[in-house]
């Protein structure tokens, strides 16, 4: 099932290369649509546990569904596995990816009318390859495989921005590429080091007990050497003890903190955090609209997902050690991102900076190690995954008509384009964090969770108060934006612009509905699926820390 | 009560909330097709009419239900599990008690008539924005507002109260900015929303403490947990305010929580210093001003304080009282100099909201809500009158250009006059004859007087004769406000300065009366670190089941309940006298500015022929005026006061603070009334006379006066320069900060990133050169060539350099990996790699 989901887009990509040019976009949309439909077949598995939401994933971290596992690269001392599976963290993100990819694919429908409209085959096949990369990241549980998908996603993105982007596309693409690559390099180091150290741990244990291997902590298997299994590294006490031990060194530093920081930087660049965020506004501004949607809706979530899959379960002790640092970065991202957004005059750049601010809540929520913090961080990822593509699409709609994004040159668009204006109101208010829309839930949960962490960290209330103050700034810049673009008297230069077309409404309405439904029924839409796994991750982290 | 009724009222109220929501969506989707005026009628009937019918049914039924059954219904109310925040479940349901039933009815009633009025108001060209009719959008927003406001009133959970609270704010934003093609309208809308968000930020802090310490967000459960923590001196009462682990104030966390929650009310009810948005909010269509910015939404703050009264400590309430007192005084003074008819009403609204908040702060729970109700009627009516005037005079709002309109608009003139009488508190002193404001404002002042001047007498009296307290809540306890009063007591005290002699004498016991949920506290649980030293609580039961003799413990060994009360009272601070006097003086100012407004508009000679010529009335608009005027005249005193008196025990049970109502026998109170009866009762006459003397013969005398008092006049005209100061400090400050942030982004962070990139590129070129020289890069070249072929279908980005970046990255990674192998993990290298590689 998961393989099908992951590789359907690749199939589509291959087809795109051979079908006649006028049909390429049809094939691409069908491929993305098929992926979406197939991914929806995952839902029943998770609904099944609906009567007792907390137990959807049973007890303990590592309760997986739809597992596919086979040896992939067999060396003398190591095995790289083709190991896919989803749990409460991966599943919602898979659905998010397929949904947003499908909508972004629809948003690419008018490719022919773009300024740069050559290479339709290349565009759509790269687009679908990108989707495979993203899906692969969310479902692969073997570190090596994870890394491969991580890199697979990188290159198509580079070309999609660098070829079909705006005037400064080369700069933006290189910047995106280099920032991410810097993170990848650190991740690669961690990959190798973690593999070696897990091997060392297993060998020590084997010598100590004179057994031929170490039993896996969560499945029927025996370990005889290092592993790339992300779940095993997190739950196997032998490996965990070795990783956490102060005697385990990396270049004279304690192993766990260094690895945590390496992985953290790799993922934090994606999230992004201040001060590693400057690739984001440039990439967004230059990227074509659908790519911005993907970038904001899915790519940024890989950072948060990485924290939840690698950093926290595998290096829980370091997570606690660095809690203050992470919380400070989170709070700074929230406030600094909001302030930067306020100063922007480019519509798209403003939305991009708002992403920085919103993702700060994700980091803060994770940093404080509380249930509501984790839940809020996860929800915030998904909520942002819905609201920010919507905002970028809203920018795209008007950019296609006006061919500029200068906020101060707009005005009165709600009168000119009433349907579009209504959608914009929903999208931006969701981003603003208005209660009953999706943006509120994540922020509220995170702020509450942060305050609650007071029993663990004395600084927590201060962080919570500052994060809560972020809502004022957010209201400020979003309302100011709405005022400058949508309100005010109608302007002559925009008079006669056609209102949002059926296709455009078809793209915005699903996101608007999702934003509203997630805000009103957070438990049925998200928490029922995620809480079990998140609590298990947290339980594991807390158990390891104490 | 029979079983079928168990959930009936809740369901009816829930339907009353949801039907406007459904009609909102229907209007959004099909409103344009329905057109004008069908979509308006749709909103009137389905958006609010049905809710009003349901509210009336519930009110009638509730009114006939006895207290015991009501309590049972409240308790049995259904709660739906909505979500879980961490470990705290959040439930949603209808908070079914008298307060909700009354407020629900009031909101639905006033809203319905304002919806009807809107049909008339919008029938002309008032629905046009930038030349396009947005008729259905206006009514859609109204329906959304109806949903949010009714939801706010009915919500059983603090979180949902907050959610509806924000939705109400959204509606306010959308409706203030309805004429969004006009600069001042959307400015006002943003100002309203952001100012409210500042208040909500405080609300959120309060919620954090509720969540963190009380571990629930349900209103009832929070009150129970609060009382328990008070009894045991733990949780909110177990510590002071700390920052990074250091105590910075001895004030109990409970007080901070109360103040936080009240901050929300400060935003919504536009209390000083967050009042700045309300006058600007008059940029919205006049029905909106009447509905949202006079009658319902702005009163939500008062409702919130009433709801969380049980979570308030005396210190928090003192804060409430101070804010209310400042607001009512400062804003009344500004109202004197306003010339815009709506602005004048707006400032009067601010002042009256100040009265309500002040009343809440004094502990005059019933009186404050009573004032809220009466105010909702007469102020909605006054605004609608002004709307009639404005619409009739072709959007002229300047009262200096009006005058003499009584001939052209008789209905408006006299309904407005009834409103003026009501807000001024007109009535015959010493009797029960008077208009709403006469009773409600007078009662607030009486309580303030008692709290500030007669405090010792109360304390003595209650100490001796505490027994009368419970009867206060019976339904018979409904006496005229100017009659006798009683203090019902439940006192709590906390000394902020441990170590003072007073502290030593402060009672260290906890009193728990007639409530099975609460166990007697362990008096030995005192902790030296405790800031809440000396806390005491009285929790009383429902009317009719007073059981004063229930368990209580006392570490001093005395058992007379009266004595205990005296001890608790001894520590409670009286209200500062200046607060009472400010409130009293303002009671003289109110009639003055209201009579001034009425006279300038309707009496005298027409000052602008053009305006006068056009003036006319529309029946669809004056029918609601008459209904509201009748409501103002009759319903308020006979209906609301008794209802609220019945609501009080349910909603304030277990509260820590004083709630005053109506039946004390304390001699001191009688004495107080001898003075107040005439001091307040006659205020309206004085105010009217002064206004007529000054404005009776046109504006000449007023202009002379304003010249004579130039500095004061200027200060008031500029509203104490709040807008200007906020503009500089907050808005400019924020923008400055944001520019700094952008500068940092561009010139520091990006500069570093770009420089690193350039450096890397240079190194990569160098490395590429070396490797090229050695001719090992065929493979790499091949890969990058393939990559380029894909992208290079069109243009090759940064030709040639990509290859170098990839190359450099791979090289860097290789170096690091080699480092790892050699130094990093000695053991791993020893056990895995070296044997594998055949190394020693």
Notes on the protein architecture:
The complex is a heterodimer of chains A (546) and B (840). Chain A has a domain at 322-546. Chain A is 71% helix and 5% strand. Chain A has 22 helices and six strands. In chain A, a hairpin with a 4-residue loop joins strand 1 (65-74) and strand 2. Chain A is globular. The longest helix of chain B has 53 residues, at 722-774. Helices cover 67% and strands 3% of the residues of chain B. In chain B, helix 1 runs antiparallel to helix 5 and helix 2 runs parallel beside helix 5 (135-154). In chain B, strands 1-2 form a two-stranded antiparallel ribbon. At the A-B interface, helix 6, helix 7, strand 5, helix 14 and helix 16 of A face strand 1, helix 6, helix 7, helix 28 and helix 29 of B.
Short description:
The complex is a heterodimer of chains A (546) and B (840). Chain A is mainly alpha-helical.
Shape of chain A: globular
Radius of gyration of chain A: 23 Å
Mean pLDDT of chain B: 73
Strand content of chain B: under 5%
Strand content of chain A: under 5%
Spatial separation of the terminal alpha carbons of chain B: 90 Å
Q: Structural class given helices, strands, pairing of chain B?
A: mainly alpha
Question: Number of helix segments of chain A?
Answer: 22
The amount of helix of chain B comes to 55-70%
- The strand line-up of the biggest sheet of chain A is 1-2
Low-confidence stretches of chain A: none
- Round the Cα radius of gyration of chain B to an integer and report it: 33 Å
Instruction: Extract low-pLDDT stretches of chain B.
Output: 463-569, 791-800, 821-840
Category by helix and strand content of chain A: mainly alpha
Please report the two chains with the greatest interface, counting residues with C-beta closer than 8 angstroms to the partner's C-beta: A-B, 102 and 93 residues
Number of strands of chain B: 8
